[in-house]
From TrEMBL:
<dbReference type="InterPro" id="IPR036264">
    <property type="entry name" value="Bact_exopeptidase_dim_dom"/>
</dbReference>
<keyword id="KW-0862">Zinc</keyword>
<dbReference type="InterPro" id="IPR002933">
    <property type="entry name" value="Peptidase_M20"/>
</dbReference>
<dbReference type="InterPro" id="IPR011650">
    <property type="entry name" value="Peptidase_M20_dimer"/>
</dbReference>
<feature type="binding site">
    <location>
        <position position="108"/>
    </location>
    <ligand>
        <name>Zn(2+) 1</name>
    </ligand>
</feature>
<keyword id="KW-0378">Hydrolase</keyword>
<dbReference type="GO" id="GO:0046872">
    <property type="term" value="F:metal ion binding"/>
</dbReference>
<feature type="binding site">
    <location>
        <position position="400"/>
    </location>
    <ligand>
        <name>Zn(2+) 2</name>
    </ligand>
</feature>
<dbReference type="Pfam" id="PF01546">
    <property type="entry name" value="Peptidase_M20"/>
</dbReference>
<feature type="binding site">
    <location>
        <position position="108"/>
    </location>
    <ligand>
        <name>Zn(2+) 2</name>
    </ligand>
</feature>
<comment type="similarity">
    <text>Belongs to the peptidase M20 family.</text>
</comment>
<feature type="binding site">
    <location>
        <position position="208"/>
    </location>
    <ligand>
        <name>Zn(2+) 1</name>
    </ligand>
</feature>
<feature type="binding site">
    <location>
        <position position="143"/>
    </location>
    <ligand>
        <name>Zn(2+) 2</name>
    </ligand>
</feature>
<dbReference type="Pfam" id="PF07687">
    <property type="entry name" value="M20_dimer"/>
</dbReference>
<feature type="binding site">
    <location>
        <position position="97"/>
    </location>
    <ligand>
        <name>Zn(2+) 1</name>
    </ligand>
</feature>
<dbReference type="GO" id="GO:0016813">
    <property type="term" value="F:hydrolase activity, acting on carbon-nitrogen (but not peptide) bonds, in linear amidines"/>
</dbReference>
<dbReference type="InterPro" id="IPR010158">
    <property type="entry name" value="Amidase_Cbmase"/>
</dbReference>
Length: 428
């Protein structure tokens, strides 16, 4: 069974109203999923690849058919504009991305683009003319699988890309940034010209799959995002003394792995001390020399720390460092900490959040506010204009995986909520 058939199998066609077509959305999700299809049934469309280009071209064709004026900026972002009745009014923006991780799913990013486009299709079907211009945007290289960075297109559009650093970057295969971009059909030297003046923009709203289980656990199709977590990354190195596992008494050991273990156990209790939305994760740990009969000399681990509130994020970073230092002291080993901030926390615009919640209620769903632990293009645009996000329920919370899935009923529900929200925003 292909994706189109699977989506339609359990679809309640009562969702087909006000110009919205679940069948059209399902077919487009299915056709897009065929580009970069992996042997596992997933998607592989890394940023600035032929597959990402093909996906953009496919959607671009649908945009043109819908009557949108489409252009590509110098960073490869696709901007499709529907004129407003009042051309002088600032535009309302919506969209996401179509690139994926190497073996990802078919909804992450792509759904946000197609939901925004379906709003335009619904307006076309009902002959609705928005007062404000409306733009559907496909951002380039959101996932960062190409250069291990991410949000490249939105950063370029916002003028936040460090071009000196970007020009020196090489992709996962060692190919220089300039060559990758030129092979893609763009000019690396004019890449920074994608910078946009957002004075002509009213707001940005992004629809995205949740990538978690909160909505599923609450049995809700959609939820309104309260903020996008900032990210702090700590590289912590515990250093002790290597020794023979059999000939070194337990009371004469300086074992960095014991210190690391103590730290890992106590780490789980720290986030709740600062915020209900904070999290901390150790996903990578290396032991040296890593022999079965050797007391380690060194343990290197990375702590991923996130929260949607900037103040509590910094508090948690400080708590984690203090706890690591305490564990090292207890075991009489040395510690070294390297700090890196990979993104600041941002909150969604309160006015837009309230308006979006009203649209959720109007469409028959209980309002739920939830944080985003993952980064999105909306995070970058929030630095320049009011921003809101709508999450769509993810089955089992699975994402970045071929099993990633959101029902067509939920996807169509998101179209109606977004449509109502944008129409209400016309009157604000």
């Amino acid at each position: 069974m292909d994706i189109n058939e699977k989506l339609l199998e359990a679809y309640d066609r009562a969702g087909n109203h006000s110009g919205v077509s679940g069948e059209r959305l399902a077919l487009r999700l299915s056709l897009l999923s065929e580009i970069g299809r992996t042997t596992d049934g997933g998607s592989c469309r890394i940023g600035y690849s032929h597959e990402e280009r093909a996906a953009k071209d496919l959607v671009r064709g649908w945009m043109v058919e819908a009557g949108l004026a489409v252009r590509e900026d110098e960073a490869g972002n696709i901007i499709a504009r529907l004129p407003g009745v009042h051309h002088h009014l600032p535009a309302i923006l919506s969209g996401s991305h179509v690139d994926t991780v190497p073996n990802g799913g078919h909804f992450d990013g792509a759904l946000g683009v197609l939901v925004a486009l379906e709003v335009v299709e619904a307006w076309k079907e009902t002959n609705f003319k928005p007062k404000h211009p409306f733009e559907v945007i496909i951002f380039s290289d959101e996932e960062g699988a190409r250069f291990n960075t991410g949000l490249t297109g939105s950063k370029a559009m916002a003028g936040e890309l460090d071009m000196e650093q970007q020009q020196q970057a090489k992709d996962v295969h060692g190919v220089p940034f300039e060559k990758v971009i030129n092979n893609y059909g763009l000019c690396a030297k004019s890449f920074s010209n994608a910078k946009r003046d957002f004075k002509d923009s009213k707001a940005f709203v992004e629809v995205h799959i949740e990538q978690g289980k909160r909505l599923e656990n609450a049995n809700l199709p959609v939820g309104v995002v309260s903020g996008i977590a900032g990210l702090g990354l700590l590289k912590i190195t515990f250093t002790g003394t290597a020794g023979h596992a059999g000939n070194t008494p337990m009371n004469d050991r300086f074992d960095p792995l014991t210190a690391a273990g103590q730290f890992l156990y106590e780490l789980k209790s720290l986030p709740e001390k600062v915020s209900s939305t904070a999290v901390a994760t150790v996903g990578k740990l290396q032991v040296f020399p890593n022999g079965i009969n050797v007391i380690p000399k060194e343990v290197e681990l990375y702590v991923d720390i996130r929260d949607i509130y900037e103040e509590s994020l910094q508090q948690l970073i400080d708590l984690v460092i203090a706890k690591a230092s305490e564990s090292a002291k207890t075991q009489a080993v040395e510690i070294q900490v390297e700090k890196k901030r990979l993104g600041n926390a941002v909150l969604t615009d309160q006015g837009l959040q309230d308006l979006l919640l009203k649209s959720v209620e109007k469409n028959g769903s209980a309002p739920m506010v939830l944080p985003s632990g993952a980064g999105h293009d909306a995070m970058i645009l929030s630095h320049h204009l009011p921003m809101a996000m709508l999450f769509v329920r993810s089955q089992e919370g699975i994402s970045h995986n071929p099993r990633e899935w959101s029902s067509l009923n939920d996807c169509v529900h998101a179209v109606h909520v977004l449509k109502d929200f944008i129409e209400a925003l016309q009157e604000e």
